[in-house]
Amino acid sequence: MNSRTQPDSTIHIVEKAKAFGASMAGITSITSLQNAPSYEVYGNAEWPVEAKSLIVLAQVHEISVPELDWWDDKNGGTPGDRQLGSIANSLRQWLNEELNIDAWSLPYHIEKGGIFLKDAAALAGLGTMGKNNLLITPEFGPRIRLRALLLNVDLEPTGPIDFTPCEACNMPCRRVCPQEA
Ligand code: B12
Ligand code: SF4
């Protein structure tokens, strides 16, 4: 598959990501990401020249399972990120085998070639940037972990969305910090 694909392909790929276990998934273009606010601050990023779009995956971290976000030095990561990595890997293989789409899994850290995941997720319509500087999703609030795959095809974007939870809120997120940051 190449050139611009149909909206049906976007829906099919997003649904498959969820079937592999992602709580949410969405698509945006590399061009949109290049113009996102974090790149204005950070400067240009380098991606494979073939990359045209990306799929952002989110996994909910329920309040009852805090250990999903516990850093473990032995394996160098968190259980939640390993679960999301495995979902991304299954999706990457399926995209390649079933749709002939090349997909690149990305490192977590920006300095190792990762992307700014909150910007990507906001552009892909998973949620909006909250006043706490985290991505807030309509269904799971900020309690999600993100990951992304770059794709060598143009796909119909799924965002951004019109969602403004902070507008009518008295900002407990800003008042809770013991250091008044
Ligand atoms: C470096 C980093 C950290 C550092 C520094 C955090 C910081 N506050 O600067 C440390 C280690 C401290 C950290 C801590 C945490 N992090 Co962190 N971190 C990252 C990482 C690797 C890069 C973030 C970064 O440097 N951003 C770039 C700087 C320049 O910008 P920024 O501060 O994010 O602000 C930009 C956005 O707000 C954007 N923006 C604002 N409005 C809008 C509107 C639109 C439409 C768009 C597109 C963009 C946009 O523009 C700003 C720049 O101008 C990302 C993973 C990734 N690869 O993206 C995870 C990530 C952001 N972290 C995450 C999380 C969960 C956390 C913690 C909650 C972890 C924890 N359990 O404590 C804390 C929260 C700390 C906090 N109060 O912010 C999640 C966020 C999930 C979410 N729901 O948003 C991410 C995406 C990791 C992941 N895999 O899911 N983190
Ligand atoms: S507590 Fe309110 S202001 Fe803060 S991020 Fe959540 S909705 Fe936005």
What descriptors fit this protein?
181 residues, alpha+beta, 4-stranded antiparallel beta sheet, two-stranded antiparallel sheet, binds iron/sulfur cluster
Describe the protein.
The chain has 181 residues and is α+β, with helices and mostly antiparallel strands. The protein has one domain (7-175). The protein has helices at 7-19, 30-34, 37-42, 79-99, 117-123, 172-175, and strands spanning 24-29, 53-60, 103-105, 128-129, 135-136, 144-151. The strands form 2 sheets. Strands 1-2-6-3 form a 4-stranded antiparallel sheet, sandwiched between helices. A two-stranded antiparallel sheet has the order 4-5. Strand 4 (128-129) and strand 5 form a beta hairpin. The mean pLDDT is 92. Bound molecules: cobalamin and iron/sulfur cluster. Residues 36-38, 41-42, 69, 108-110, 114, 116-119, 122-123, 129, 133-135, 142, 144-146, 160 line the site of cobalamin (B12).
